[in-house]
Design brief:
heterodimer; A: alpha+beta; seven-stranded mixed sheet; 17 helices; B: mainly alpha
């Protein structure tokens, strides 16, 4: 690469607030040349090591799950296949890149707080972006989308993380610019707007119902337009001819197929009936990788399936019992057996992808003797307890079962009760004393808002207890702190509290295991995506048939 | 053999007093009573399941307010008896109700799956019934011969295998690993019918044929052996009739009577057992619809499908009893 090209790339990277490497990677992900036919395109392709993208074809992807309750909505999902449908048609203001970092590679060319005041944010969308019906994306659509996201009547999935948005205090500055005046200072607003469910919809999009808009009104800015949809079976999406990113997307058509049964999904991939299948069960990984014509795409996630102890319910009111449980767990063994090794270790903390994650805390290891003495001190030696679990995500039941085996060594009898999802999420959900649950990839503060505060919608452990009430204060402090250095200090203090006294036993994080046909180009192993298959090929636009 | 023969005898005895029409009427009424009881049992069973449709629909995202609203919308807040009578009232007038999950009438939701499954059953029946009758008869005719022994071994082996094992073996053999000649799963796109692409049907039909043929063929063989040893067959042979005529005109109609009962049971089994096969091949039939409805707590759909499968059992049993009487000369005459 020539010297002046490097300098230009550095300049571009600085302008976007990211490093040169990241810009190159991003260019590779996006599959586009920022400088036209310049050196960057070559560099981007070299970085991925794939041939030049080719246009055409009908890409058929087998999604896991799905039923007649499937929906299509630019801002919500019900079942797993709905994720694929959403990202094909809708885009967000900012996006998480392959390192789980927010980048300005979405619909907003600017999204920033006003001079160190995290309560006022300015959003400016790109010019020349069109919705599927030809309407130009503008400030009104952003305002409408944000108001719809936080509409309490709609109860949208992405709305919970945006609670600081005041729907009545959003100002339109010009045709492309909007200013948000939040209810309080909130640095996590960027993360919340980068969630894939925070899609930008046109003014008037399905105002009263979620997922009920008729086919013709399913309008977004995404790379594909909806052609047909049969809940429980499939949806067909066709290429958006006016898509704003030059050259993308590559497929003529994308078909998303529901596969509730794992075996059927794998068989369809092996038989060439579909071109990719998400969520390959660990036991079938060798079948897919050993088959000529299919490969496995393995990507780390920050998805976790914790064992949850209610800090306000005996015996876990005693912090020593919680600590003992965490010392009983042999984490490498749980990852090896529960996930067949396709995961990485947990340290009783969530959000390992967050730059604010404290990697300095020592990895917790099994210590049966210490666990026994803690239990004895708490008067709980020979403890017998039920552990409620369900097959919500890979690792949930598996982790519970391996843990129960390990607990025997400490004289603790754990009776694993595997419930069906209807029973698990019954009125007892979030009230079980000892249970499992599952969570997706999030940054630390967003996750705290979702599950670790009294105000959180899903706080299984009822953390923090009175002894750790300081945690709440630290959280609101962190939320208002724009300085990264200062915020890191506060967050590390919060993490130390959870690490020492928390109610979660986080034993590990599972990898995404997706299968794909070798005809497919553009997939990147190791992508830290929130949803499978590189976020379904970033809305099916960064993958192609070779 | 003897159990089926005894059943045929009982059928004949029960049928004697009022002739065949009285018999049919009584069986149909009993069948309706059975269906009514089934509907109560199914309703009670779905009530016993922890968690309700509102929970299943909202899943983890449920808040107390949203649950209450949805329960009200779905009439889940009414007493159980009222829910049941409400459902039964509409059911008898032909209204299967509205799906709690899919936001469309149950009849619309299960229409296509029923058609798909019926077609699958029909093809499987059309192949397996004649096939097993011929296999059984020929084996009986050549008793202890090479064909008899080899077919018996094969059929016993197949009968011992659960259908998901044979299904998966078929997939591995023809779809994914050994040969790549047939689609391993039956992806029937919406708007298409299963008969539009026969290739998609081959594996599921084969799996069902392999599941039911052994039973019918074994019964057919046993029953034919008994008939072939009977006096009237010997008489026919002594009269100098051709062996073909003896076998197909005289022995078969008598030998088939007990087999009809087994065929009916096998077809009824197909109606329920199709669930497993449909699941393996992702075939969009009632099996998959049923599994999904149960996990979603979609009561009207569960009820409708359960009643449907129970009705298939009842109809097939009544049909088999009538057919048994009609084909056996002995029973037929005893009714007059």
């Amino acid at each position: 690469m020539r010297e002046d090209e490097l300098a230009r790339i550095d300049e571009e990277a600085r302008a976007r607030g990211i490093s040169r490497e990241e810009l190159l990677k991003r260019a590779a992900v996006a599959g586009l040349a920022i400088y036209g036919a310049g050196g960057l395109a070559t560099a981007a392709e070299a970085a991925v090591g794939t041939a030049k993208p080719k246009k055409g074809g009908n890409f058929r992807v087998g999604a896991a799950g799905g039923s007649s309750s499937d929906i299509i909505d630019g801002q919500d999902i019900v079942t797993n296949p709905d994720q694929a449908r959403l990202v094909a048609g809708w885009e967000t203001l900012v996006v998480f890149d392959q390192n789980f970092k927010i980048t300005y590679n979405g619909l907003a060319e600017e999204l920033a707080p006003q001079k160190n005041n995290a309560a006022v944010w300015t959003i400016r969308v790109r010019s020349g972006v069109e919705f599927h019906n030809g309407k130009t994306l503008g400030a009104d659509d952003v305002i409408y989308s944000l108001r719809r996201l936080v509409d309490p009547k709609l109860k949208l999935f992405g709305g919970a993380a945006l609670s600081s948005i005041n729907p009545n205090n959003i100002k339109k500055l010009d045709n492309r610019t909007v200013r948000l005046f939040l209810k309080q200072k909130d640095v996590t607003i960027l993360d919340a707007l980068g969630q894939y469910v925070a899609g930008i919809v046109p003014v008037g999009y399905s105002p009263k119902a979620v997922g009920k808009a008729p086919l013709k009104q399913q309008i977004g800015t995404g790379p594909y337009m909806l052609k047909s949809f049969t809940p429980g079976q499939q949806s067909v999406h066709v290429r958006n001819p006016n898509y704003w990113r030059t050259g993308q997307p590559y497929f003529d058509q994308v078909t998303v197929l529901d596969f509730p049964d794992d075996t059927a999904r794998v068989n369809a991939l092996l038989g060439g009936q579909i071109d990719a299948a998400v969520q390959i069960p660990p036991a079938q990984v060798s079948v897919v990788s050993g088959h000529s014509g299919t490969k496995i795409l393995e990507s780390p996630t920050a998805q976790w399936t914790p064992i949850c102890m209610r800090v306000d319910s005996a015996p876990f009111t005693d912090v020593r019992v919680r600590q003992a449980m965490r010392l009983i767990a042999n984490r490498p063994q749980i990852v090896a057996q529960g996930l067949a090794g396709h995961g990485h270790l947990g340290n009783d903390l969530y959000a390992p992808f967050d730059p604010l994650y404290d990697h300095g805390l020592p990895q917790r290891v099994q210590d049966i003797d210490k666990a026994k003495s803690l239990l004895k001190a708490a008067g709980q030696d020979g403890l017998t307890i039920d552990l409620q679990t369900t097959n919500g995500a890979l690792g949930q039941n598996e982790g519970a079962q391996v843990f129960a085996q390990q607990a025997k060594a400490a004289g603790v009898t754990v009776n694993v009760k595997i419930l069906d999802s209807g029973a698990f999420y019954s009125n007892q959900y979030l009230k079980w004393t000892f249970s499992t649950d599952f969570w997706g990839t999030r940054n630390y503060l967003s996750q705290v808002a979702a599950g670790s505060l009294p105000s959180s919608p899903y706080n299984e452990t009822h953390w923090p207890d009175a002894a750790d009430a300081k945690f709440k204060k630290l959280y609101s402090e962190a939320l208002q702190t724009v300085s990264l250095k200062k915020r890191t200090e506060i967050v590390h203090e919060m993490q130390t509290l959870e690490y020492d006294n928390g109610g979660y036993l986080v034993w590990g994080f599972s990898n995404f295991l997706d299968g794909y046909s070798t005809k497919l180009g553009g997939l990147i192993p190791g992508d830290k995506g929130v949803i499978p298959l590189n976020g379904f090929g970033n809305g099916f636009r960064t993958i192609w048939f070779t | 053999m003897s159990a089926a023969a005894a059943r045929a005898g009982r059928v004949a005895k029960a049928a004697r007093p009022r002739g065949i029409s009285g018999f049919v009427v009584r069986r149909v009424l009993l069948g309706l009573l059975t269906l009514f009881l089934v509907s109560i049992v199914v309703f009670a069973a779905t009530q016993a399941l922890p968690g309700d449709a509102a929970r299943a629909i909202l899943g983890r995202d449920a808040t107390p307010q949203s649950l209450a609203t949805l329960r009200k919308q779905l009439h889940l807040d009414q007493p159980v008896v009222q829910q049941y009578t409400h459902w039964l009232g509409s059911f008898v007038t032909g209204d299967l109700g509205h799906s709690l999950v899919a936001n469309e009438p149950v009849s619309q939701l299960i229409g296509t799956p029923i058609l798909n499954s019926l077609f699958l059953m029909l093809i499987a029946g059309l192949i397996s019934i004649p096939l097993s009758i011929v296999l059984g008869s020929v084996a009986a005719r050549r008793r202890d011969g090479v064909f008899d022994h080899s077919s018996s071994m094969t059929l016993l082996g197949l009968a011992a295998l659960p259908e998901f094992v044979t299904s998966i073996a078929l997939v591995v053999l023809f779809g994914t690993t050994v040969f790549h000649i047939l689609p391993p799963v039956s992806l029937i796109p919406p708007g298409q019918r299963p008969w539009d692409d026969w290739k998609e049907l081959v594996l599921p039909v084969t799996a069902l044929v392999l599941a039911v043929t052994p039973y019918i063929a074994r019964i057919m063989r046993a029953s034919m052996i008994e008939v072939l040893e009977s006096d009237y067959v010997e008489m026919a042979r002594l009269k100098g009739m051709r062996e073909q005529t003896v076998l197909w005109r005289h022995a078969l109609p008598n030998g088939i009577a007990p087999t009809i009962q087994v065929i009916a049971l096998s077809l009824a089994y197909l109606a329920g057992g199709i669930v497993v096969v449909e699941r393996v091949f992702a075939y969009p039939g009632i099996g998959n619809a049923f599994v999904e409805a149960v996990s979603n707590r979609d009561l009207p759909t569960v009820q409708a499908l359960a009643i449907l499968i129970a009705a298939a059992y009842v109809v097939l049993n009544v049909g088999a009893d009538v057919a048994t009487i009609l084909v056996s000369p002995r029973l037929r005459t005893s009714l007059k």
